[in-house]
Amino acid sequence: MARTPAELVGANPGPSFEITMDGRPVTALPGQSVAAALWSAGILAWRTTRHTDRPRGAFCGIGQCYDCLATINGEPNRRACLVPARPGDVIITQEGHGHARLSV
Ligand code: FES
Q1: Residue of minimum CA distance from atom 3 in ligand 1
Q2: What are the tens digits of pLDDT across the range 54-74?
Q3: Can the keyword Cell membrane be found in this entry's annotation (predicted)?
Q4: What Cα–Cα distance (Å) separates residue 20 from each residue in 5, 29, 54, 65, 104?
């Protein structure tokens, strides 16, 4: 009989909550990173590269590659794999270096 990952680790997460990704509601669990919550919702890319607009999402998952950069609650260049999801978080696809709206 197969066991779920939650059973294997004895996890007992609290109630789920909602974050949004480009306005789309996404369900997250306490303890999940933003990247994990997005992956759980089937969202695999939330950034485009600076020069070629190629899609990027989580790659290493441990804060080393910077592929997972996202704008989280208005702050660009956050590593989604390291940021714990919090109720009401607003995630926005990051384009380029994340400062497109700034006049600098
Ligand atoms: S996935 Fe590599 S730094 Fe986040």
Answers
A1: 63
A2: 899 999 999 999 999 999 999
A3: no
A4: 25, 13, 22, 24, 28
